[in-house]
TrEMBL record:
Protein's name according to its UniProt entry: ABC transporter related-protein
GO biological process assignments: carbohydrate transport
Keywords, comma-separated and alphabetical: ATP-binding, Nucleotide-binding, Transport
Organism of origin: Pedosphaera parvula (strain Ellin514)
Statement: the UniProt record of this protein carries the keyword ATP-binding: yes
Gene Ontology MF annotations: ABC-type transporter activity; ATP binding; ATP hydrolysis activity
């Protein structure tokens, strides 16, 4: 069992001029037993600090961290039963892979036989049996990362903490290690907390994802929920590639009902259907932000039929073929947007085309608070 409960956690650092830097602000988060939780957010949002507070490498300013009901705020790092894997791998350069993996167990005075057994088991799991006698300098980046993982695994900790462990690997190796981490998580059945600034890594790895911004937790949920039901504009914008399209506009009312008018193309309005009217009733005459993912805008065809209210004519600026799909970059007034289409496109820059905006998959946000309008 290893359930990590973080309550009202805060960390304030002192800046160079004595000013307070709030790195983590009133964080409440529970990581369930055996869960793979990914903490994600842009640089400086407080992910690493959160991990370091859990590991005991920094002292907490406010709040509590407990594991399985035991508050660990003041427990020394070595007694927390956690293992941390760093971005830099942090291997001892003068020790072989075997010695690097065995070191922590030797310090804990485990019998030699058991150490050997645990190292061999981990090496088997990570497919680095043939590398055990080599120094780190004679290992590839991927192999070094495996040794760093092995060093954590042999300790059989309650909780694994990963601080951007894949970011020093090249792209193919990163993908490979992602798969292996998945496998490892299933095999070990341990609780894992993984920090990254890469949203696609978060989406691929997390049972749940916690999105942070400026020390504040924005949303925590399963990847699909974060993607499809973002709680605010920041989350909508941070998660997903290509990024979600954002249009500023306002809700109008006329004889036909409610519609969304684009700020930068005021002659274009999208008539809202009943369900959207109900949601946006309170926003009549007010500014709102319409956010729609690139895959929810498509070429309008005669089959678009019933949704002709949601067709917009825009100018294509660029078509980028990605093989299986094409990204179209288009412009509506002064606002650029991206369309992700499966079809190969013969569109040429400057050409105008009709696009269907599938508003059933669109999100509306309050421009002042950034919060989703429900
Ligand atoms: P990155 O992805 O760049 O590692 P992060 O999300 O992990 O960023 P943190 O390293 O946790 O962010 O930093 C959060 C904030 O706290 C930042 O503003 C950072 O400058 C500040 N900070 C972190 N450590 C210290 C420190 N030891 N002293 C002062 N400020 C710090």
């Amino acid at each position: 069992m290893a359930r990590v409960v973080i309550e009202n956690l805060g960390k304030t650092f002192k800046g160079p001029k004595g000013e307070a830097i709030s790195a983590v602000n009133n964080l409440n988060l529970t990581v369930e037993d055996r869960e793979f939780l990914v903490l994600v957010g842009p640089s400086g949002c407080g992910k690493t600090t959160t991990l370091r507070l859990i590991a005991g490498l920094d002292e907490i300013s406010t709040g509590n961290i407990s594991i399985d009901g035991r508050v660990i705020n003041t427990v020394p790092p070595k007694d927390r039963d956690l293992a941390m894997v760093f971005q830099t791998f942090a291997l001892y350069p003068h020790m072989t892979a075997y010695e690097n993996m065995a070191f922590g167990l030797q310090v804990r005075k485990l019998p030699k036989k058991e150490i050997g057994q645990r190292v061999r088991e981990a090496a088997e799991m990570l497919d680095i049996k043939d590398c055990l006698n080599r120094l780190p300098e004679a290992l590839s980046g991927g192999q070094r990362q495996r040794v760093a993982l092995g060093r954590a695994i042999v300790r059989k900790p309650k909780v694994f903490l990963f601080d951007e462990p894949l970011s020093n690997l090249d792209a193919p190796m990163r993908l490979q290690m992602r798969k292996e981490l998945h496998k490892l998580h299933t095999q070990l059945g341990s609780t894992m907390i993984f920090v990254t600034h890469d949203q696609s890594e978060a989406m691929a790895l997390g049972d749940r994802i916690a999105v942070m911004k400026q020390g504040v937790l924005q949303q925590v949920d399963q990847p699909a929920t974060i993607y499809n039901q973002p709680a605010n504009l920041f989350v909508a914008n941070f998660i997903g590639s290509p990024a979600i399209n954002i249009f500023q506009g306002r809700i109008l009312r006329d004889a036909q009902g409610l519609s969304f008018q684009f700020d930068t193309a005021q002659d274009i309005t999208l008539n809202l259907d009943r369900a959207l009217e109900d949601r946006l009733q309170t926003r009549i005459g007010k500014e709102v932000i319409l956010a729609i993912r690139p895959e929810h805008i498509s070429y309008a065809t005669p089959a678009s039929g019933a949704n002709t209210n949601w067709i917009v004519s825009a100018t294509i600026e660029l078509a980028e073929s990605m093989g299986a799909e094409t990204y179209l970059y288009a412009k509506l007034g002064a606002t650029s947007f991206t369309v992700r289409t499966a079809a190969a496109s013969s569109a040429s820059p400057g050409q105008s085309a009709n696009f269907l905006f599938d508003l059933h998959h669109a999100h509306f946000f309050d421009p002042n608070t950034g919060m989703v309008i429900l």
